[in-house]
Each structure stands twice: as C-alpha cells, then as structure tokens.
Write a structure and sequence with these properties.
Blueprint (H helix, E strand, L loop, with lengths): L5 H5 L8 H9 L3 H22 L3 H18 L9 H20 L22 H16 L3 H11 L5 H8 L3 H18 L5 H18 L1
Helix pairs in contact: 2-3, 3-4, 3-5, 4-5, 5-8, 7-9, 8-9
Pfam family, one: Sigma70_r2
Keywords: DNA-binding, Sigma factor, Transcription, Transcription regulation
Family: Belongs to the sigma-70 factor family. ECF subfamily.
C-alpha cells in the first residue's frame, strides 16, 4: 500500500484497517493512522497502568509516555509481535522502572468495579461489592509478575504468547504465574464462593436435622 499516494489515501477509511496496518502507515509518518491507534489502545493501556501503579496521575503520565515512545519507536518496529502487544511491553517496562525507582508496592485501584462489566459476580449487590473489594485486596498480595499475568489474561484477554512477550518471560513461566495466582485467589476468595457457602449451609442444615 502506497501511503504517499494522496488520492489513494483519501479513499481509505482508517477505522476499517487493522492495528498492524495502521502501525505500518504510522511508521512512515501517517499521524492520522497513529491517532486511530491511540484511540484504540489508550483505554486498555490506561487500565493496565492503573492496575500496576498506585497513583492515578503517575499512571496517566506513564500511559502518555508509553504512547510517545511508541510513536518514536514505530519506524524501528519490526512487527515481531502485534502492535498492541508491543505497546503493552513498553508500558510494562515503564511501570517496572517506576517501581524500581520508587520501591512502591504496586496496585491501588479505586476503579476496580469495572470488573463488574463482565457480569454479576454474586446475586446480592452488597456481596458483589464485598467480593470486588476482596479481589482487589488479594491481587495486591500477589507478586508483581503474577498480578500482571493475571490481569493481562483475565481482563485484557491477551494470549499466553502475548503475555510472555509483554513480561519477557517464557510461556511456561506465564502459565506458572497464572496457575499460582488462580490457586491463590481461589483459596483466598473461598468465603465469597456462593456454591461453597450453599453446600456448607446445606450440610449445616442436615447436621441440625440429625441432632434434632
């Protein structure tokens, strides 16, 4: 595709192009193509940075720095991964650098209720909010890499291969982080498991009937 051909360029609806096609155009200086990319990638990138950095303003600043670095680096982007994976890789590196500088414990998320968009977690609103608060607190107890792997998989929907590229670890290591984080969360969030509570209540009722 010849992006220098203005007549052909005007006939293209950028919103119909895939991310990697837009990245190819942006790499040769098409600012409109990059603007479309920014519009697409900013929401998930900002979400991720907000999960990994405990200050909203810092997360926003790092998001902007990530996008700026992506723009500067596009001419050298070799497309060995998707554009989205590459941007998450830049963002993850920036969050890691931030914590190395600050020695902060990552993760302070006042907007964690966005997870509710995936559907109701419990029947009662109060219990659902308790579970969300508990999940937020328990994620804070996970090691940074496990938390990042869990979030990229469960919330952002990246594949194991994409996560391995973002975190710069093997897919086997990603799988290990996911297994450990899921086991940890399953154990720690057991009190909020409606199925477990229901079976426990039924057992208690049966025991009460026996003693009666």
């Amino acid at each position: 595709m010849n992006w220098s051909d203005s007549a052909h360029r005007e006939s293209i609806d950028l919103d119909d192009l895939g991310d990697d096609e837009l990245a190819g155009a942006a790499a040769v200086g098409d600012t409109e193509a990059f603007a479309v990319l920014v519009r697409r990638v900013t929401p998930p990138l900002a979400r991720y940075m907000g999960r990994m950095v405990n200050d909203p303003q810092t997360a926003e600043d790092l998001t902007q720095e990530t996008l700026l670095d992506a723009w500067k680096g596009l001419p050298n982007f070799a497309f060995r991964s998707t554009f989205r994976t590459w941007v998450f890789t830049i963002g993850h590196r920036k969050s890691a650098d931030h914590h190395r500088r600050r020695r902060d414990v990552p993760f302070d998320d006042e907007r964690f209720a966005e997870l509710e968009a995936a559907g109701p977690l419990l029947a009662e609103e109060a219990e659902r909010q308790e579970l969300i608060d508990a999940l937020r607190a328990e994620l804070d107890n996970l090691p940074s890499s496990s938390r990042a792997a869990w979030w990229l998989k469960e919330v952002e929907g990246l594949t194991l291969e994409e996560i391995s590229q973002v975190l710069r670890i093997s897919t086997g290591s990603v799988r290990g982080h996911l297994q450990r984080s899921r086991k940890f969360l399953h154990t720690r969030l057991a009190p909020w498991d409606p199925g477990r509570r229901s079976s426990t209540s039924s057992a208690d009722e049966r025991e009460g009937e026996v003693h009666a």
